[in-house]
Structures are given as structure tokens and as C-alpha cells.
Amino acid sequence: MEQADYQYAQVKLAQLKADYQVDVLADWGPDSPDPNGWKPGTWTKAELDRLHNAIALMAEVMGGSGRFAQNLCGVTVRKADIGGHPYNGKLSSLGQ
């Protein structure tokens, strides 16, 4: 997350929490101990938007944001590297 997008990201995190009871573990923000420093983390503004859109679609299928929050009892999202696909995009490994 770029420092210029910080305010936008804070608003998006507040929306996710208020509307869907979703907490996003932000890995960006002011860098300590230097109060003027910035830790960009791994999230991008576009990824945060895609997450919000995906949650909104899922909530719609579940009957709305209230039902989403009620059924899932809160969700925490943390971005992590889960590795690559074992076939690495090569279908020949599948016998095709």
C-alpha cells in the first residue's frame, strides 16, 4: 500500500468492519521508530478493492451484509504467500 493511498485504505477497512464484520490485518502504515517512515507492506489498493468486491458478492448471495456477518461471526483476512501451482501452468504434466 502506497502512503498516498493510506487514507483510502483506512476508509475501506472501516467499511469492511462496519458492513461485514471483516477485519483485514494491515501490513502497511507508519514505520516505527521513525514516525516519518513508511512501511508499504504487501497489499495494493487494487487488491483491497477486489477483496471488498468479493465479500460484497458473497454477502449478496448469503442474503445481505447482516446475514453474512451473522453466519460467519466475523472474519479476519491476512495476506500471505501460499505458493505456486504445482503444474506451473503446464498442462503437459496432466497428460494433455
How would you describe what is shown here?
The chain is α+β, with helices and mostly antiparallel strands and 96 residues long. The protein has one domain. The protein has helices at 6-20, 45-61, 65-72; strands at 22-24, 29-31, 37-39, 75-77. The strands form 2 sheets. The protein has a two-stranded parallel sheet. Strands 2-3 form a two-stranded antiparallel sheet. α2 packs across α3. The radius of gyration is 17 Å and the shape is globular. It starts with 5 loop residues before the first helix and ends in a 19-residue tail after the last strand. The model has no long low-confidence stretch (mean pLDDT 86).
* Strands, count: 4
Strand fraction: 5-15%
The average pLDDT is 86
First-residue to last-residue Cα separation: 40 Å
Number of helices: 3
Write a brief caption for the model:
This protein is α+β, with helices and mostly antiparallel strands and 96 residues long.
Task: List the topology elements.
Layout: H1 6-20, E1 22-24, E2 29-31, E3 37-39, H2 45-61, H3 65-72, E4 75-77
Parallel strand pairs: 1-4
Antiparallel strand pairs: 2-3
Helix pairs in contact: 1-2, 2-3
Task: For the structure shown, list the relevant keywords.
96 residues; alpha+beta; two-stranded parallel sheet; 12% strand
